[in-house]
Write a structure and sequence with these properties.
The chain has 603 residues and is α+β, with helices and mostly antiparallel strands. It contains eight helices and 39 strands. Strands 3-2-1-24 form a four-stranded antiparallel beta sheet. It has a four-stranded antiparallel beta sheet with strand order 4-5-6-7, with no helix packed on it. It is flat and about 155 Å long.
Length: 603
């Protein structure tokens, strides 16, 4: 019999092996956060984690499904640029994959793994290049990295690999130009597949099963978008559009799309085939580690075990089903067995329809219905574009493509939409104008109109009376364009006004000073003094003044009429009579005045 100790030891070894194997298989997505990798199930439950060097700052992640090896890039470590670790290996120290050469600088931000060629691809922001390298092996323990593409005016970030079609995709998030490009794995057939309506693209992911390319776009302001297209960059659609997030890396599995958010320090997910009511769900939060951002995210399901042959077969079957709606030009009956019913049915298929052996029925051409395709369909020539179906009342209804609208899909939504020779394209079922010499959502504002309206709204006097300026809205114009169109002219106008005011004020000060000086000078002009000496016996000249104090008197007239001495104005004595003769002299008038003053005070 087996001893008890041997049984317990065997049980412990088997349990340890099962735990290690389960750890390697029991995760659905993984996240790089600082110096560790967290592995989660779909509901956000932490399964296990892997910690590397304490000074590491992990960014890119890639996974080899066959060997259960995870590859990670370190953006800060100057000793090692890339690690690898086999899940289930008890060794706590990951193996180095890529070490820097002397004087080399590298910042690996995103990596992918090709399971067919055992090749790693990554984007390097320091070298501004897309690199590739064989993974280390016993035959080649130190492989040499190869530059696949050099970028002079681009800042590469996200990277994705189409394993089945053998294409490599990368995102350029330079501030001057944003685009998504692809090329063959040998660097040939390089071209831009998306370069419009992009603001700042970070992450890329290829959905092999669905044949889609997903990316994150940090839109202007606080908005963001999760977009997708086919693998050629066509059929673009917005999966989700929201705000208050900064999405970075992205990954997909068979049901969901995952992305890291640098604003909320969280991992979000949303269904690939979501309903209109579905919203993103926060599955993991790193708010407690607010000093560190969640970087790359990968899914186990989409990184390996990709059966390209099965995927191609499903896609071919889907294409074949779509082609069944278009009958062949000529039909050959290759049936090996015939029954009277099938033969009769085949003979009765009308209107150039053909007999389908797989369904044992007539395959009708477009516009005909019925068991024998002998009835004209209400949908015959009803929809100008798009597909026609019958509602529950048997009436035709059209399902228009994104570029057409109307009851019968008769109107192209770009017709007459863009003004002033603007080119129109359709994006997300909405017309989009690309203006050359104009601006506005519909290119409605031309450069000439801008200049005329700016002159009209900036000038106080209407000098454009002969021109139709009904399109100028000065209130909106002043708010919109004073900051942009005339920002260079505002300081000049303000300076002119300021210096004009200074000149006017200075001139007024000088004028006031001159007037004050003249007024002060006029007030200090000499006073007029006249003295007269009189006596009781008559008028005596000043040259023969009397000696006695009682015999004479003396008065001094100091500009009496200007009221400098008298409180009341001077007046003519009543005893003075107006001379009637022209012979009277001024001397007689003075004597008469003095005589009259002897008895009365005139002042």
């Amino acid at each position: 019999m087996v001893s008890r100790d041997t049984f317990l030891l065997t049980l412990a070894l088997v349990s340890g092996f099962l735990v290690v194997s389960m750890d390697a298989q029991s995760w659905d997505f993984a996240v790089a956060i600082r110096n560790r990798i967290d592995f989660y199930s779909r509901n956000g439950t932490l399964t296990f984690n892997l910690t590397v060097d304490k000074d590491a700052t992990l960014k890119g992640l890639a996974y080899d499904y066959d060997t259960q090896t995870v590859y990670m890039s370190d953006s800060k470590n100057t000793g090692v640029f890339m690690y690898s670790h086999k899940l289930g290996d008890k060794s706590p120290v990951p193996s180095s994959v890529l070490k820097p050469e002397e004087t080399s600088i590298s910042e690996v931000v995103a990596i992918v793994f090709d399971p067919l060629q055992k090749m790693l691809y990554w984007t390097d922001q320091s070298l501004k290049a897309l690199m590739k390298m064989k993974v280390p092996s016993k035959e080649n323990p130190k492989p040499t990295p190869i530059r696949l593409h050099n970028f002079t005016d681009h800042n590469p970030h996200g990277i994705a690999l189409d394993i089945c079609n053998r294409y490599i995709y990368w995102a350029n998030n330079d501030f001057s130009k944003h685009s998504i490009e692809r090329s063959k794995l040998d660097g040939s057939d390089r071209r831009v597949i998306v370069d419009t309506e992009l603001y700042q693209v970070y992450g890329l992911a290829v959905d092999h099963e669905g044949g889609k390319l997903y990316w994150t776009d940090d839109s202007e302001g606080i908005d963001y978008k999760i977009e997708r297209s086919d693998l050629d960059g066509n059929e673009r659609e917005i999966l989700w559009e929201g705000s208050s997030q900064k999405p970075a890396y992205i990954a997909v599995d068979k049901d969901s799309v995952y992305w890291t958010d640098w604003t909320s320090d969280a991992i979000w997910k949303i269904g690939k085939n979501r309903n209109t009511q579905d919203k993103p769900v926060e599955v993991v939060s790193y708010k407690k580690l607010h000093l560190f951002l969640a970087e790359s995210v990968i899914t186990r399901e989409n990184t390996g075990n990709i059966d390209c042959k099965a995927i191609s077969g499903r896609q071919d079957k889907l294409t074949k089903n779509l082609m069944l709606t278009t009958p062949p030009v000529e039909f050959h009956n290759n049936a090996t067995t015939n029954t009277p019913e099938t033969t009769q049915l085949h003979l009765n298929c009308r209107n150039n329809s053909y007999y389908d052996e797989s369904t044992s029925s007539c395959r009708c051409n477009e516009g005909f219905i019925g068991a024998y395709c002998d009835t004209l369909s209400p949908c015959n020539n009803y929809c100008i574009h798009g597909n026609c179906t019958l509602d529950n009342k048997g009436l035709p209804q059209c399902q228009c493509p994104s570029s057409y609208a109307g009851e019968r899909c008769e109107r192209y939504i770009c017709d007459g939409y863009c003004l002033n020779n603007g080119s129109c394209s359709v994006s997300n079922a909405m017309p989009l104008c690309k203006c050359e010499h104009s601006r506005g959502p519909r290119c409605e504002y031309t450069t000439e109109l801008d200049e005329l309206c700016s002159r009209y709204c900036m000038e106080t006097e209407n000098t454009l009376a002969s021109i139709n300026i009904t399109l100028c809205r000065c209130g909106e114009w002043n708010e919109t364009f004073s900051e942009f169109s005339f920002s260079a002219e505002q300081p000049i106008s303000s300076a002119i006004i300021m210096w004009s005011l200074v000149a006017v004020i200075g001139t007024l000060i000088i004028v006031v000073g001159v007037l004050s000086y003249h007024i002060h000078k006029l007030r200090r002009r000499p006073r007029i003094r006249k003295r007269f000496v009189g006596g009781k016996r008559g008028i005596t000249q000043l040259t023969s003044r009397p000696q006695g104090p009682t015999d004479s008197y003396e008065i001094s007239i100091e500009n009496c009429c200007n009221m400098n001495i008298c409180e009341t104005p001077c007046f003519e004595p009543k005893l003075r009579t107006t001379p009637t003769k022209s012979k009277s002299t001024k001397k007689d008038e003075k004597n008469s005045l003095l005589d009259s003053m002897e008895g009365a005070d005139s002042c």
